[in-house]
Design brief:
alpha+beta; 2,3-Dihydroxybiphenyl 1,2-Dioxygenase, domain 1; 41% strand; metal ion binding; metal-binding; Fosfomycin_Res_Enzymes
Amino acid sequence: MLKGIHHIAIICTDYAVSKAFYTEVLGFEVLAENYREQRDSYKLDLALPDGRQIELFSFPNPPKRPSRPEAAGLRHLAFQVEDIDAAIAHLHAYSVVTESVRVDEYTQQRFTFFQDPDGLPLELYEVKA
């Protein structure tokens, strides 16, 4: 079912500082940078050397957390799947609740979220073979 990690999403408190750190200090390549006006938020897609990605988000005044999805720190861990419907059915067979499937506005890929037993947000991200 799971094929690997597609991306790791991080919400930062200072976009310029974090962008410089990930691109200049760590040397990740910028794949795309989008300003989302309706959310007053940046989304920066970065390539890791193995082809995986980091999504760096900014939000105005993100709350501190260990669990809220729009707060500073690790946002969620995404698992790549080829068939999201089959993966969701598998989770449902184990009584794992999933959110409604959404479509990424930039890539047109389908995704959904669920939680681990401690409430950590996890994502299934469909990438067709």
